[in-house]
Amino acid sequence: MKVFTRPQRLRTVGGVQYANGPAYGRKGWVNLGKAPGGAGLHADQVIDIFERATLKALIAKATINRPSGALVGVDNRAVVKKSWTIRGTITLTELFKLSPAFREMVGGPLHPRMRNLSLMWGISADLSGRPIVVQTVLRTGKGDPDLAIGNVVSATRYGWDAKATVTAPTAMRVKRLPFGDDITDFFR
């Protein structure tokens, strides 16, 4: 199966998540059922940009907080000539305590082997403070063979001020996908 021959797409409408792409073994949309916590906002992104308390805590501990250059948003639109970059590192235990969306994504207590895993994060925003790009890199470590899958990288681009209607695609329902489809499967 050639998973990376086309983009993988997720769409959440009315609390139901739909997927499309080679990883799902079909050309059409697949109904994945009830969307996991925050999926309508950020799909595989573990940092929810709409949680003010979480963002405030991350920014307070940021190691980089400075002006930056041009950014390209969703589908190469919304070019921002000047931006602001904020970066830092947090453990999954700290993020679990801070973020209600992350706790819901995990779906229960954080596994003890994951508590000290390091998550590098970065947020690039326009000068008004609206996030354009959110990136996370989960370093899984080498000590535990079950977790040594390499780095898990997620980059989410946001577009603002677009007038659009998102409708649910015609989809088929599957009982089980052939393999894990997103970062939430890593935590379960």
Keywords for this structure?
188 residues; 4-stranded mixed β-sheet; Phage tail protein; 5-stranded antiparallel β-sheet; alpha+beta
Description:
It is a single chain. The protein has 188 residues and is an alpha+beta fold. It is built from five helices and nine strands, in the order βββααββααββββα. The protein has one domain (3-187). It has helices at 39-42, 52-60, 92-98, 100-106, 183-187; strands at residues 9-13, 16-21, 26-34, 64-68, 83-91, 118-126, 131-139, 151-157, 171-173. A hairpin with a 2-residue loop joins strand 1 (9-13) and strand 2 (16-21). The two termini are 24 Å apart. The model has no long low-confidence stretch (mean pLDDT 76).
Task: Work out the radius of gyration.
Answer: 17 Å
Find the structural class using helix and strand composition: alpha+beta
Total strand segments:
9
Mean pLDDT: 76
Low-confidence stretches: none
| Total of DSSP H or I helical runs spanning 4+ residues | 5
Strand content: 25-35%
Shape: globular
Q: State the end-to-end distance.
A: 24 Å
SSE inventory with pairings:
Layout: E1 9-13, E2 16-21, E3 26-34, H1 39-42, H2 52-60, E4 64-68, E5 83-91, H3 92-98, H4 100-106, E6 118-126, E7 131-139, E8 151-157, E9 171-173, H5 183-187
Protein name: Phage tail protein
Organism: Nonomuraea salmonea
Give the structure's gist in a few sentences.
This is Phage tail protein. With about 190 residues, the chain is an alpha+beta fold.
